[in-house]
Specification:
The protein has about 110 residues and is mostly beta strands. It is built from two helices and eight strands. It has one domain: Nucleic acid-binding proteins (OB fold (Dihydrolipoamide Acetyltransferase, E2P)), CATH 2.40.50.140. The strands form two sheets. Strands 1-3-4-8-5 form a five-stranded mixed β-barrel. Strands 6-7 form a two-stranded antiparallel ribbon. The protein is globular. The mean pLDDT is about 90.
């Protein structure tokens, strides 16, 4: 079983890309507070959202917005320029829940 649920705030606006096959990928990073830490700290989790749901994330999510993500953990492997093996971790989202929306006044002004 590979399931993860997160709630956090976006560290910057989402980034939208297209694969060579024309599939859209929206990526963003969530800052998830560590409620068990004695000092205030957060974990920074990369998230990838595909297709129409990714389009909605790119359109409506912004830096600082509170967001819920359900999905699965995916790891990769590569060797960096110094020859060190790296194992980045990313969440592939099955579901993204917008827990905060833009202020209506700000949206109307745009």
């Amino acid at each position: 079983m590979n399931n993860i649920n997160l709630i956090g705030r976006l560290t910057k606006d989402p980034d939208m890309k297209k694969t060579n096959e024309g599939r859209t990928i929206c990526t963003f990073t969530l800052a998830v507070d560590d409620v068990y830490a004695k000092d205030k700290r957060a974990d920074f989790i990369k998230v990838a959202v595909f297709g129409g749901q990714g389009d909605l994330c790119e359109k409506y999510l912004r830096k600082g917005f509170l967001t819920g993500v359900s999905g699965r953990i995916r790891t990769d492997q590569y060797t960096d320029a110094e020859g060190i093996k790296r194992y980045p971790v990313e969440v592939t989202a099955d579901r993204v829940q917008f827990l905060q929306w833009p202020d209506r006044d700000a949206a109307d002004a745009a």
